[in-house]
Amino acid sequence: MNSLPLFSLGAYRNLLERLKECDYPLLPVSSVADTSVSRAVFLRHDVDFSLEWVLPMAELEADMGIRATYYVLVNGPYAIEHQGQQHLEYLSDLGHELGLHYDMRDYPESKEAQRSQLEAEIRTLSTLSGCPVNTITMHEPHRGHGDPFREDQWIHPHAATWFNNLTYISDSCRGWRDSDLLRFLQPEGPDRLLLLTHPELWLDGNIPD
Fold first, then answer.
1. DSSP 8-state assignment for residue 53
2. For the whole prediction, is pTM greater than 0.85?
């Protein structure tokens, strides 16, 4: 693969296959904390708009024997109860990891109250999905709200301990920011990649970029 991926589920499958051909283990985000993992691609998905929309990507990964991490907004634009809970349980049944995607715009100003809300959201997501939530990450950090939990007890992919030793690449707004991804599509590529994708961007193969 000599060009950056287009945006379709077929292109995403090709990307994963190419990474596997280059001998990268494809792992969920919590594996960044495993000191025995020196070379890997950590698959992160931010669920910003719909739980239902992420299911085709989650099924594709499961069919390939791959586990990824799906970061869910408890107070997002989609309901996580009733049918949403079924989607969460299905993601877990497929073998994927669920993490909390917290939005500081919904949080109080007090540090103590912020932590209480974060812990409540983690409990809610864990209860509804039926699986523990060990990893967290902030929604839309570019808005400048600050991230009080980056260096906390949970596995945060942007914590300095992990983030300083990997390459971070995002597909935000369907805009690959540079060609770094191509370096990982070569047999002798760099060791560690945190790959963030937003599943809704890959659903319509008629819109390639």
1. H
2. yes
